[in-house]
Amino acid sequence: MTGHAIVIGGGIGGLAAAVALRRIGWQVEVLERVHAFGEVGAGLSQSPNAMRALAELGLAEQAEAASMPTWATHAMRLPSGRHLMHAPTGQNPPLRAFRRAALHRLLRQALPQDVVHTGVEVTGLAQDSEKVTVTHTAGRQDADLVVGADGIHSLTRRLLWPQAPGPRFLGYTAWVGLAGTSLPVRGSMTLGRGCYFLIHPVAPGQVYWALGSAADQSGVRFDDELEQVRRRVAGWHDPIPALLQATPPEQVRHLDIHDLPDLPAYASGRIALLGDAAHAMSPDRGQGAGQSIEDAVVLAAALADNTPVPAALAAYDAQRRPRTQATARNARQAGLQVINAGSTAHALIALALRLTPSTLWARLAPRTLGPLWDWTPPTLPTMPDALPHG
What we know:
The protein has 13 helices and 19 strands. It is an alpha/beta fold. It has a domain at 4-52 and 100-168 and 259-340 and 372-386: 3-Layer(bba) Sandwich (FAD/NAD(P)-binding domain).
């Protein structure tokens, strides 16, 4: 069936949902509470599963043009500069790194301009067997379907499951930045004790970096966040000092890392949760945005035939909840393994990586990550008037 959908939230997941639903013939409106889109975070990487999902949205060429190939998590170093693992030669890197704003922009450009409404904050939801009524600061509307893509602090989630636990702090914090540099920087990851420094080139002359570090509590901020990063990685290998030198202070953001305890369901009646609203996760598998794009494709596929909306959303929930919750657990465990590593554990991790030949790791990694990276999206029937714009 087709109908009218309201997507709450204009982030990557919400826009992907709008693109996917339009591709199957639905009328879609996106309600975003902020008045203008800004950059949240600086960059992100997308693994093969996410790139296939973007391709199913008709955005394969745009996504490739807006990103850079990176071997970051296959090129591991110590703060001294010693290599624990070299990126293999003669193979295509498995990841594509984006400036977050670029990925967001290409999704916006795939939609007509009148689809996304900014400065509209949703305040209430009510549903019966026929419709959902959405109350917001610009009035109220009825819809056949509501998609809550309103992030980790989702109002949609709180309205559906008021007793569900909220986000939990994972005991670490991160600084992210965007450097402008002509240096020939390759992706890499440096493992310190209780911290890491990640580097991704995201565009010609632009490099995304992130410092993750253990933290006793959330909400701690510094007058000069860039100087705090410099202090924490003082003496670390090149090109880290040069990247920090090339980073304007206004391009640095300090984010505390949270995830979301498992929810009992991602759908109720005619309302579905998507992305961080359903399964916010730590960045340690690079899957937060990718899983939300997967959600969008699976949701649209479930709605693409004549299945009634509640039944289609139940099918969406059955497909997405096991995969995303397992991915979130895996990401949390991977992050805490590094962040919580004391001197002995850090030395053992470094030794294990150093003793694993890079060529062997290049063969093992796809097998280890196969259940995550090998995911194939369902095929969406595309309506002629729903092709990407821009």
